[in-house]
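Record type: monomer structure entry
Structure origin: computed from sequence
Chain ID: A
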Amino acid sequence: MKICLMGFGAVGQGVARVISLKNDHLNDKYGLDVKIVAVTDTSGAAIAEEGLDPDLLLEIKSKTGKVCDYPEKGISDLDALSVLDQVEYDCLVEVTPTNIQDGEPAKTLMIKAMADKKDVVTSNKGPLALSFSDLIKNAQENDVQFKFEASVGGAMPIINFAQQTLPGCDIESIFGILNGTTNFILSRMTREGSSYENTLQEAQQMGIAETDPTQDVEGIDAACKTVILANSILGMDVTLKDVELDGISRITSESIALAKKEGFLIKLIAEVSSHTLKVSPRLVREGSPYSVEGTLNMATLKTDLADEVTVVGRGAGSIETAAAILSDLVNIWKSK
């Protein structure tokens, strides 16, 4: 399988890493040989029909910060859209930075690949939260596969789990912790009694929170994931503007201590159902499935036949997210 890798930040580098680690295993088990035939970042691209060396890509990115410095195969200032016309590939792996304003450039890249009859795998929440139905329609009209397990919960299996493991069940609702940064902050505040401001600063120093943490702490990231789950699992047709939203920036150490005294924790919970799309801080019982700590994510799916099914997994990290992307690539390969 020849893949075109759009974006070579943390997730894109994670994809290169897992391909380097697992390609022999995939070949032995599934007969799948994944070749990266093109990679892009803000500097340009590297293109090779015979495949690029993932370890060399990682080394060059680490040393120079530019994939266009790949020996003999690098091209500076080549835009991603042009790359799709210059290389023969089977699947677009789209992992450019999330844009929640208009979903670009990811949306245009994915629609272009679909029009060219290429399968698409992405971790990008932006276009999925803003233009889900449009992307699904394009995939169906062009008879290509479109997968996005990595867009919700990192390595926590939920979309493929719901669609492939519970296909006989009607899923009535989903409640979950869908953002690792906020869960880390709230867990730390609970354990140490520290203030929100100090804990956020600590999370930023550890690289868990971004320099601008707004998307995480105000619940926007979790809201994007809420939309993706509502559309992909519950069959709804909603966008980010349909989610009622409240973040954690007003949570105090005093309110956390008061909740704990009564046997409760405060968590940022996403609720997904046919009548409610909401992200907000809520009280959950200590010792319940919602009491996961650190950057873990979890989700409970309420079904008609299997009652409640809960999944837990690492919600962030380049390797963890890349693991979900790899699972989508394997599933596409197996289906063919």
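Annotation 1: The chain has a mean pLDDT of 96.
Annotation 2: Residues 48 and 180 are 36 Å apart (CA to CA).
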